[in-house]
Amino acid sequence: MANTVENPLYSPFFGVMGATAAVAFSAMGAAYGTAKSGTGIAAMSVMRPELIMRSVIPVVMAGIIGIYGLVVAAVITNAIENGGNYSLYKSFTQLGAGLSVGISGLAAGYAIGVVGDSGVRGTAQQPRLFVGMILILIFAEVLGLYGFIVALILTSKN
Description:
Elements: H1 11-47, H2 57-79, H3 88-125, H4 129-155
Helix pairs in contact: 1-2, 1-3, 2-3, 2-4, 3-4
């Protein structure tokens, strides 16, 4: 099929930008969550070194955010076609999918970092705070999951 108004030559650009946005923004959120939670773990481990392994949960949850972006980027990349058979509609839905998972991953990573930092420091002083911290981290993580679900729905559109 030749390049037409519905399938212009530049269509793959938007799909590639969707994959880029998925990985880049999700990785930024995961990196921020890991760094911010890591500083809290380091500060907490001075007072209570026996709680280090228990306090790694926010770092693991931040890493999962990066995986969401990687999965969506792989799905988008596998669907990109060259040669004029790639519509603008499909490329824009893939751009939207990448932005959906990427920006929600950035927000979730930020939330996980802030909660993880304060939570592990607070848990060192009051161990009963741990369950509350985990619940708040789950609600922060689910923000990234919402973007991931929307991205998968968008990538399934033709």
